[in-house]
Amino acid sequence: MSILIKNGTVVTAAETYIADVYVEEEKIVAIGKALSYTADIIIDATGKMIFPGGIDPHVHLDMPFMGTYSSDDYETGTRAALFGGTTMVIDFILQTQGDTLYNALNTWQKKSKGKAVGDYSYHMAVTDFNDDVAKEVVQFITEEGISSFKTFMAYKGALMIDDGQMVQLMKVVKEHGGLVTVHATNGDMIDSLVAKNKALGNTAPLYHYLSQPEVTEAEASARFTDMLAYTDCPGYIVHMTCEGALNAVRRSTLRNQKIFVETCIQYLMLDASLYENDFEGAKWVMSPPLREKKDQEALWSGINQGLIQTVGTDHCPFMWEQKKMGKNDFSKIPNGHPAIEHRMELLFSEGVHKGKISLNKFVEVSATNAAKIFGMYPKKGTIAIGSDADLVIFDPQKEHEISSKTHHMNCDYSGYEGQKVTGKVSTVLLRGKIAIQDEKCHLKPGFGKFIKRKTTTKII
Ligand SMILES: [Zn+2]
Fold this sequence. Notes:
Blueprint: E1 2-11, E2 16-24, E3 27-32, E4 41-44, E5 49-52, E6 54-59, E7 64-65, E8 68-69, H1 74-83, E9 86-94, H2 101-112, E10 119-125, H3 131-144, E11 148-152, H4 163-176, E12 179-183, H5 187-199, H6 206-210, H7 214-231, E13 235-240, H8 243-252, E14 259-264, H9 265-269, H10 293-304, E15 310-312, H11 320-323, H12 343-353, H13 359-373, E16 391-401, E17 420-430, E18 433-437, E19 440-441
Parallel strand pairs: 1-4, 1-5, 6-9, 9-10, 10-11, 11-12, 12-13, 13-14, 14-15
Antiparallel strand pairs: 1-2, 2-3, 5-16, 7-8, 16-17, 17-18, 18-19
Helix pairs in contact: 3-4, 4-7, 7-8
Zinc ion binds at residues 58, 60, 314.
């Protein structure tokens, strides 16, 4: 099976140039002007751009939460991702406190095997650290190809580890070449604000936002960077939303730390005024919450200054009926929103089309940096000879509108309903196979592969 893509504008994190790309089996075999290969399929990409397949480093598929599950499973979630040009996602395995990492891995393997349409990997969320878990952490890095470990500084009693466990985990991960990632918010401060608002009878989604002020994220982000400095471990802060947290990272860079930052598309696009619409605001109840306009400015400039390396989604959709579990209590609204499908198009439209970031920066933060930080580069995340043929052919002029009526995510509303977007995915290749063409998915469940990752952060 071979594919020749002709005359497209190839865009990588470093360069932009017009070329043909020739693909054989799973790999990119040649890139050049007027290539003379005969191929099974020829795609004319004149006037279109060719990006490396997007990598979303932060999704939650089929995730248990408050007695229910996020509404996209591996099939619907990875398929929707492909429609939007994201060829690979990294999901989170959650350790049950008191149980082993391997039991959790088995559970997540059952969710994904035979179901995933697009490629995937896992971060391992360590929620209960002890000597036995330390041994498993080493096995995950050396045998399972899972080299990033998620921690929570919030959700006490379910997911949170204390600072002592955090430091011990960092030491083990550092020694074996992995990376510690973090949900950096001060759980105790938030819990007390939630309790206070509930006692006052404040039940609306707005109080979810008011219970997680910027300082709760800024404080925890700073504490995390201090613990990284103390252990010399590389770290990665997920879903950063605000100026205060970004400033904590800015200060930490004076110590020449290995610290990476992810923001998510919603924090660049949407703001907290959405919480003022009574229960409608539940659509955007997520943690951390949407912030202010000044934070959006800080995040865009953080991307341009190289303080923020990746843009993910924290995709964690719930049906409207599920959101209504919190009709009379904001703390019972399942956290998360659907975004896996539109990350690349929204980032292109809002970022590149409106002149906030360059085309190459777009590729860097939507694909290349995630591949580098998480140990998959140059197999994933770039367009180069020998790389996986994960390619997005993109029409930069095409205008369209986002709606739950046309999206492919298993969610009955959109957080971006009616949003006008410039630039649309037209064809997607995953490991040399046509995944998306003519608005249809051509891959079956089970095509998606678990991608084993190397030890991380050596390249970036
Ligand atoms: Zn998340």
